[in-house]
Write a structure and sequence with these properties.
alpha/beta; Multidrug-efflux Transporter Regulator, Chain: A, Domain 2; Rossmann fold; 2 domains; five-stranded parallel beta sheet; 8 helices; 10 strands
């Protein structure tokens, strides 16, 4: 299934955007320096025109964005690379959905994907190129420590792994950090603590560089 980052122009730098350039919701949010949810609200209220991909994702022509900016006297001087990509891997759909909705509502532009299926995690990492992986320690068929170790061994740089669990042991924490994890957070999550971690060393752009196929 195609994600926002799979579209051809999702990895372009802030360069020659032509009237026919097509952008994702996260890129539009970065250009207008607003949250993706605000962009989606514009679309729902017929304030901004979008077209749909076969997978149901919104796409926007740059010419439409220019007309919108001129009509409403707002700037589109933002950088489409100012997007932090986050992949949430958690089989608790309540937690994953809450985190996705919360991050996408912030003015700092986060592009978020989630999966609750363990075998999809490494495939989505390779496809989506996240800057941050929020990883539940224990999911059916998956050991979070082993997945963290595998990914960190195969990625040159650019991937931060944040572990979350309601059942950390001191041994778990030690092995997770040795495997390359950045921090171990307890469930239920302290949202302020999570945001502090995410924004302390915030990165954006293309994401990590793989040197080995997953």
């Amino acid at each position: 299934m195609m994600t926002d980052s799979d579209y051809g122009e999702a990895d372009t730098v802030k360069k020659e955007l032509t009237p026919d350039s097509v952008l994702s919701t996260s890129e539009v949010a970065a250009l207008f320096q607003i949250s993706p949810i605000t962009v989606e609200m514009w679309v729902r209220n017929n304030i901004l025109h979008s077209s749909k991909t076969t997978d149901g994702l919104d796409r926007y022509k740059y010419s439409d964005l220019q007309r919108h900016a001129e009509k409403h006297n707002i700037s589109i001087a933002g950088d489409i690379k100012q997007i932090t990509k986050v992949l949430i891997v958690d089989d608790d759909s309540y937690v994953a959905d809450f985190l996705k909705d919360f991050l996408e509502s912030r003015e700092v532009v986060y592009e978020v994907q989630r999966t609750g299926i363990s075998f999809m995690a490494d495939k989505l990492v390779q496809k989506f190129h996240p800057h941050v992986l929020i990883l539940d320690l224990r999911m059916p068929g998956m050991n979070g420590i082993e997945l963290c170790r595998t990914l960190k061994a195969q990625i040159d740089d650019g991937l931060r792994v944040i572990g979350i669990s309601g059942f950390w042991s001191e041994s778990d924490k030690e092995h997770f950090l040795i495997a390359g994890g950045e921090v171990c957070l307890d469930k239920p999550l302290d949202i302020k603590e999570l945001i502090d971690v995410l924004e302390k060393n915030r990165e954006f752009g293309d994401g990590y560089n793989l040197h080995i196929e997953l």
